[in-house]
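Lab notebook, bench 4. Still working through the backlog of constructs that have no structural model yet. Next entry is a single chain of 245 residues. Request: give me the structure tokens for it.
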Amino acid sequence: MRSDEVDYRISGDDLQFVEVDLDPGEIVIAESGAMMFMEEGISFEVKLGDGSEPNQSTWGKLKSAGKRAISGESIFLGHYTNQGSGRRTVAFAASYPGKIVALDLGQLGGRIRAQKEAFLCAARGTKLDISLNRKLGAGFFGGEGFILQDISGDGMAFLHAGGTIVEKRLVGETLRIDTGCVVAFEPQVEFSIERAGRASSMLFGGEGLFLATLSGTGRVWLQSLPFNKLVDQVISRIPSPTEGG
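Model written out:
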């Protein structure tokens, strides 16, 4: 099905949120717990699945929900419908500091691949699926990048990432990145995970044991502060019970 054509505004600096304007009958889907506010006339319902296949069987919905559960995501998605007679607004925000990037899937060939925690919300008609990195061994031991989200459709999708988001365009190039800093990339870009180098570099280099490699031609989106790094820094600065003060 074709996606609803929604208008939007992104507000804020380091703690951004997105306001989505819905005409009567239009729907936006979002991750559980992402809603910030909704105007009168917007109805909210939690459902299995993204609603991109209205005639999907119960088994199909359970299968999709199972994939999301394996990835660590909520098996339910929020569906927000404008049941009023005029345009109404619903807003979404992420649970940690960062930026929101708006992607028009219709101008990106209809599909992108993203880290499993990047999806925030999207227009109805957007399909969410899970895929595993083909290089299972490296993906498993590398942690980040083993499980990816396939986001497809022809409407607007909104991703959230930590710190600042930067878009890079590869033209027959290879980019090596901290595994947690990859937000999303176009599907024609080859994605793999490799060892960071020699054993001494892996153990003492401070960059982790593995790096993500993006190769080819296409767009990629990176984040400057992955959530896991933020958490690690906060925890490392909490005094232990045995420390004075």
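Notes after review: Residues 58-71 form the longest helix (14 residues). The CA atoms of residues 142 and 173 lie 22 Å apart. Flag for follow-up if needed.
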